[in-house]
Amino acid sequence: MVREISAGGVVIRNKDGVWWMAAIELPAAPVAAPDTPKRARTKRKPVLCLPKGLVDAGEKALEAALREVREETGITAVPINKLADIKYAYVRSWGDGQRVFKIVSFYLLRYESGRIDDVSDAMRVEVARAKWVRLEDAPKLLAYRGEKQMARKALEYVEAQSDL
């Protein structure tokens, strides 16, 4: 089984007393040809997730998380603390179709600067758009179980901290 090590960020910001989190929407799957039966052409619900990606050789996980956030959302952030690692296995739907064991280190980050969704054209292959969502709504909106857990951890953290 192949192993992959990735890192990502839960970027938060407080605006007018409300906590917000940066999320990305994945590009939609290719739409079927017009002559495809209607039931096979149904649009899928947008997949909302956290910015994350592979840790490059010689790069630390936190550095990768900050880079991925910048590349996938257009914003820069500063670290607050490490939230947790999530681990799961999947089968690649592209290329070799191999089974992969993946570990993703997630960090709680505070928004520093930049405009959400200000990403390069090349990044649009991976990100349809980046947007702010209310942190309290994030566990319901995110597509993946482990990422829902990270949003809940971030929410617990901000609720417990009076100095943020």
Describe the 3D structure.
- The protein is an alpha+beta fold.
- It has a single domain (2-32, 44-160), classed as Nucleoside Triphosphate Pyrophosphohydrolase.
- Helix content is 20%, strand content 40%.
- Strands 1, 2, 3, 4, 5, 6 and 7 form a seven-stranded mixed beta sheet that branches.
- β1 and β2 form a beta hairpin.
- The longest helix has 16 residues, at 145-160.
- The protein starts with a strand and ends with a helix.
- The relative contact order is 0.27.
- The mean pLDDT is 92.
Layout: helices, strands, pairs:
Layout: E1 2-15, E2 18-25, E3 48-49, E4 52-54, H1 61-73, E5 75-91, E6 99-114, E7 129-134, H2 138-141, H3 145-160
Parallel strand pairs: 1-6
Antiparallel strand pairs: 1-2, 1-4, 2-3, 2-7, 5-6
Helix content: 10-25%
Q: Indicate the mean pLDDT.
A: 92
What's the total count of β strands?
Answer: 7
**Low-pLDDT segments:** none
> How does the helix and strand content classify structurally?
alpha+beta
Strand content: 35-45%
CATH class: Alpha Beta
Structural domain count? 1
Main sheet characteristics:
7 strands, mixed
List the secondary-structure elements in sequence, H or E. EEEEHEEEHH
Write down the CATH topology: Nucleoside Triphosphate Pyrophosphohydrolase
Radius of gyration: 17 Å
Distance between the termini: 42 Å
The CATH homologous superfamily corresponds to Nucleoside Triphosphate Pyrophosphohydrolase
Oligomer: single chain
CATH architecture assignment: Alpha-Beta Complex
With helices defined by DSSP (H or I, 4 residues minimum), what is the helix count?
A: 3
- Shape type: globular
